[in-house]
Amino acid sequence: VRAIKRGESVGIFPEGDGSWDGETMDFARKIVKLLKLCAVPVVTVRNSGGYLTRPKWAESARRGKIQLQFDVIDADELARLSEDKLYELIKERIYVNDVKSSLATNVKYKGKKLAAGIQYLLWKCPRCEAEGSIAGKGNQVRCAKCGAAWDLSANLRVTPLMKAEPGLASVIQDLKDWNDWQKAAISNKVNGEAMNGCLAMTEGVRMEVGRGSRKTPFRKKLLFSTVGTGRLRLTREALIMDYLNGAEERFDIGEVKYCVECLNKYVKFYYQGIPRRIFFNGQNSYRYIEIMRELREPPSESAM
Ligand SMILES: [Zn+2]
After folding, report:
1. Which three-class secondary structure state does DSSP give residue 193?
2. What is the distance in A from the centroid of ligand 1 to the CA of 126?
3. Rounded to the nearest whole angstrom, what is the distance from the C-alpha of residue 222 to the centroid of ligand 1?
4. Whole-angstrom distance, CA of residue 254 vs CA of residue 272
5. Of the candidates 82, 38, 294, 58, the residue with the CA atom closest to the CA atom of residue 190
6. DSSP SS3 for 177
7. Does the pLDDT at position 220 exceed 80?
């Protein structure tokens, strides 16, 4: 706000995170309040192809086209629109669904080792339904549990390399389909009647705790130290670390704040104002973020 008062331009990435599957995510309503407060023209930018050239989970970039579309909401329109209308307008103007877009259909993207890093996105096998068994090798996505394999193209289409089978595996044609199926599995797990205690579990993760609070100026580098290594579990109520030395540490879901995945290396969050990092050692952490999001959402909303 201070910069805007000085007459400067300010860039905002409303989602605050890269999309996992190429579809624009919902963003915080606070952004709309902030824009109304600033009362200056707003330029929206739609980035199509950004995900196709650099998927969040991927270990390498791909060559291809990126299209940027700029639109302006002038100060009068900004003042006139209700917060809800403004939110919808911005959402509509920045919305992309890269994997399903005309770019993905018409432009030939190019790259190498296209499946490297795929385990950061894909955590469930559509053939045997195992969790945490997916890995990438070269351009192939493989399940270590049932041996299923798929070819992954630079345009993120998946083609089964095993014989055609009836059922789910044949419905999934690209990464977006695959992730939508994973999200539906999470929704069923969280909102389903039959619920066992554990929603996700990963062995061999390392917990760090930082010094300082969220109020520490971001210029000042935070220092982290290791708490311990062990098994991470997620239940309806809490994230739980079972350390190798037998100790247990619980983090109530309601108190886990500002949770983001960083560079496919670690998940960062604040717990009671103190920063934490969990290193997943090359394993999938994305499902924890999706499950916690689902747990926070009222069931009526997630059903829409
Ligand atoms: Zn499998």
Report:
1. coil
2. 7
3. 40
4. 10
5. 294
6. helix
7. no
63 backbone dihedrals φ, ψ, rounded to 5°: -90, 145
Looking at residue 219, its pLDDT comes to 55
- Which residues fall within 8 angstroms of residue 96, CB to CB, at 6 or more apart? 22, 23, 24, 46, 47, 48, 50, 51
Q: Give residue for tokens 């599957």.
A: 21
Checking if the pLDDT of 195 tops 80, the result is no
Q: Could you tell me which residues come within 8 angstroms of residue 49 by beta carbon, excluding any fewer than 6 positions away?
A: 64, 65, 66, 67, 98, 101, 103, 107
Distance CA 163, CA 32 (A): 50
Q: pLDDT tens digits, residue range 239-277?
A: 999 999 999 999 999 999 989 999 889 999 999 989 999
- CA dist., res. 111 & res. 153, Å (int): 9
Count other Cβ atoms within 10 Å, centred on residue 121: 23
Tell me how far the alpha carbon of residue 18 lies from the centroid of ligand 1, in angstroms.
27
In 3D, which of 173, 185, 179 has the Cα closest to residue 56? 179
Provide the whole-model pTM: 0.90
Q: What separation in Å is there between the alpha carbon of 142 and the centre of ligand 1?
A: 8
Distance 143 CA to ligand 1 centre (A): 5
Q: Please provide the size of the chain in residues.
A: 304
Q: What is the pLDDT of residues 64-115, one digit of tens each?
A: 999 999 999 999 999 999 999 999 999 999 999 999 999 999 999 999 999 9
Contact 1, 12 (CB under 8 A): no
Which amino acid belongs to residue 131?
E
Cα 243 to middle of ligand 1, angstroms? 29
Q: What six digits make up the tokens of 57?
A: 């989970």
Distance of CA 89 to the CA centre of its chain: 23
pLDDT of residue 303: 42
With 0-12 / 13-18 / 19 or more C-beta atoms within 10 angstroms meaning exposed / middle / buried, residue 230 is buried
The pLDDT, as a whole number, for residue 7 is 87
Angle at 273 (CA atoms; ends 269, 277), nearest 5 degrees: 30
Q: Token pair 């190019």 is at which residue?
A: 110
